[in-house]
């Protein structure tokens, strides 16, 4: 994305630790995939694989017995399954926001975290897709979700938002995967060229598609990247809007609201950033990526969480206002019931985690406090899960007729299915950071002073440092 | 990828495939590219670990044609979505669900949007690979061991032997005059 000198007036700073050379950046990032995995990785991987085994067992049992093993029952036919689906999709959204939206806004600091976040998107969407897949209950006719005629030769109903959702999430998964792979191509070539054994060279070489850093290629590549970013931006907004249509187009009090699409998108970005933060802080510590992932990046992410958390808080308040203002007694009852009914504990957990906890980020001292931001990111992950639970369960469990009211409680299988998808997610994620470059190497280099072809005149031969590293260009005024 | 050491027993037939020059800074490579462009070469390229701003101009490249491929993808997706829904729900087996007309446009918007984006992205990715003629795992530049640093921290220019103006010594002196740190002749094995 090109280099520019940090503008002091805008309080900008260097994106990569000043004085770093291109070779050091390559070494820092690529060597993670070449060295033996640190002990911390093995501990985490063991935990993740155990959860994956739990997932396998749970799903096997669920297929054997049917989805009655979940707690879903009249009147709450949607419960943890859809809560988890929405939660996972939402987490994915930060990845696209970081890779696409921040790219279009020329927010160069994204290069430190975009690869990470994109991988997170893909794995989160895989986890999300598992839930509707299980919830249809008959896995042997799963293909009926696609536009194919059923045994009566009837086509799917395209007026149903559930079918829109299939197209939205399916497109989202495909486009995110393509975008991620396109970004990886030059870095896979770096790994290929560094490889010292035949298998690494063959596998990374195969995946790098014969990339040779040609400028004739970079030209089309950069155009493709720009177009994919421009396509992903409206796409990511559409995906969670369509997810919210699953609710908003129904007539259930508490669901039938026009605020849902923007409210869901803000919540998705919020929860996704929290998840990126959680994962990034762990990976930064385990793999020592301090040269590339700076405190400044973490601080900027905290600012986005403060913003989106406050937006979500506004949406909560506006829902209440509209419920009262509508004059509809069912709508009013749903919201009174949310805050003071039998699930009030879930509601207030949601409010404290999502609205109150990010408020600490008004203060610079807290925005730069790593243990604190780790705790807050976990709280937000919890709070956003409860948000979806509150929306789904409190609206369904008491609708129009008091005689049809009921309570929902999860079964052990509900819990193990959810924990199991954590296993799916973390197993994939840990394999990713172990075997693929977790930070976009070529993009980080593009934001360094060495990428600027006009810089050489003001620094030629000025540093002894340059001699040590061959070509280290240190811009004047380094922090 | 890396050059295989030639066996001593049987020398394979080789021919000159081009000349590769190495530069150490983005500034050097961009100025050298301007000289190669001005000298009128056609079959040549620069190889850099990241895209360098201004290199397209320095090489005299016309704008990328990728956008047209993406536009074709977008129109395909949009038309396919509309035709599919119209035919399935409106023509082949009309059903009335929730009292709504079998064929109705507003509810088609989300799927039309999604398929437009999907096919545009296919156009962008596969169009990019097509224009770049990738995957291509064999190329003369990979014969050079130094070329491995093209994905790390060094910058290269290659001029291929098939260029009508190609002359090994002239190319070598052009590169040396442009502050190349190292110049080497690329050879590739000729099939018997």
* Category by helix and strand content of chain A: mainly alpha
SS strand fraction of chain B: 5-15%
Total helices of chain A: the number is 17
Q: Kindly state the mean pLDDT of chain B as a whole number?
A: 88
Distance between the termini of chain A: 22 Å
Total domain units of chain B: 2
CATH class of the largest domain in chain A: Mainly Alpha
Beta-strand percentage of chain A?
A: under 5%
Greatest contact between two chains: A-B, 77 and 75 residues
- Gross geometry of chain A: globular
SSE pattern of chain A, N- to C-terminal: HHHHHHHHHHHHHHHHH
CATH topology annotation of the largest domain in chain B? Alpha-Beta Plaits
Structure characterization notes:
The complex is a heterodimer of chains A (479) and B (192). By secondary structure, chain A is mainly alpha-helical. Chain A has helices at 22-30, 39-65, 80-104, 114-135, 161-194, 198-207, 215-248, 260-287, 295-326, 329-340, 344-356, 364-367, 370-397, 412-435, 441-446, 456-459, 465-469. Chain A has 2 domains: 6-36 and 448-479, no CATH class; 38-431, Up-down Bundle (Formate dehydrogenase/DMSO reductase fold), CATH 1.20.1630. Chain A is built from 17 helices and no strands. The model of chain A is unreliable at 457-479 (pLDDT under 50). With 192 residues, chain B is an alpha+beta fold. Chain B folds into 2 domains: 14-64 and 137-189, Alpha-Beta Plaits, CATH 3.30.70; 67-131, no CATH class. Chain B contains 5 helices and 4 strands, in the order βαβαααβαβ. Chain B has a 4-stranded antiparallel sheet with strand order 2-3-1-4. The interface between A and B is large, with 77 and 75 residues.
